[in-house]
Design brief:
Helix content is 0%, strand content 46%. By secondary structure, the protein is mainly β. The protein has a single domain, classed as OB fold (Dihydrolipoamide Acetyltransferase, E2P) (Beta Barrel).
């Protein structure tokens, strides 16, 4: 499952990833804090959309990202 940045609720067009709270290869639970993105108006906390393993991080800390951009990938439990 691709991890995408949701639409910014504060009207910003872009944000900067300030922290990944999970490392590649770690188990994650749906709803767990995954990363934080700073816009010009707020710091957004992005939760994990599914339980499984964070298999890939596509955008590193410091990357500028926009809504719906792919940030990483989670292998849901039971998938290979």
């Amino acid at each position: 499952m691709k991890v995408r940045l949701p639409e910014f609720g504060d009207g910003s067009a872009y944000g900067t990833i300030i922290a990944w709270c999970v490392e590649e290869g770690e188990l994650v639970e749906k709803g767990q804090l995954l990363l934080e993105v700073e816009t010009d108006k707020a710091i957004l906390k992005i939760d994990t959309p599914a339980s499984g393993v964070l298999r890939a991080v596509y955008k590193e800390e410091g990357s500028v990202v926009g809504p719906n951009e792919e940030l990483g990938e989670i292998e849901k439990r039971g998938e290979n």
